[in-house]
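A reminder before we start the practical. When you read a complex entry, don't treat the lines as separate problems. The point of joint prediction is that each chain is placed relative to the others, so the output describes one connected object in space. Small molecules and nucleic acid strands, if listed, are placed in the same frame. In the example below there are two entries. Take a minute to note the order of the lines before looking further.
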Amino acid sequence: DTAVSQTPKYLVTQMGNDKSIKCEQNLGHDTMYWYKQDSKKFLKIMFSYNNKELIINETVPNRFSPKSPDKAHLNLHINSLELGDSAVYFCASSQDHIVRHEAFFGQGTRLTVV
Amino acid sequence: QQQVKQSPQSLIVQKGGISIINCAYENTAFDYFPWYQQFPGKGPALLIAIRPDVSEKKEGRFTISFNKSAKQFSLHIMDSQPGDSATYFCAASPSGTYKYIFGTGTRLKVLA
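Here is the predicted structure of the whole assembly.
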């Protein structure tokens, strides 16, 4: 069973469209994250949720809206897509942020905006 | 202060050799330092991690050396194998936060 799974794996869409990426973890973890990896492979955190509560929003444009319906799911909705949004988006989870920091990453969603 | 500087950007090593990747930080509030390995088309996977109260941690062929006073840490891959060819990221986590600050990555190629 995949620990952290994201759908879709690839997403090609036109500028101005709205799209969503879904993430689910079956590890029983309390904390979930969205990271963005740009074309130079630089990884940067976007959001973090702990027990469905938003903890971190790293100055991400408000066109990006995360939603956590329960502890096991963290979805990312993007409005009015721009060319600069093209990247690989990774979902991750960790048991918590104190005792066990290890973050487990999904396989990524490659978003291409044309 | 929230940066983690990683070097080299790329590294080529002969099979059986030692691969060394270095990272440096400035924020003394960082209290957890993991290394991640990423293969093309895959998500980063945790290799090994260390906390600042330990100077060295070894797991199999992978060793982290940590120098708290110099604010530097490094990954050593002993007996490097072609299967180790991947991109390696160091990271640091500020105490009490839910995030990692990643280094810029090192692309390692191990020649057969």
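Discuss with your neighbour: The two ends of chain A are 34 Å apart (CA to CA). What might explain this?
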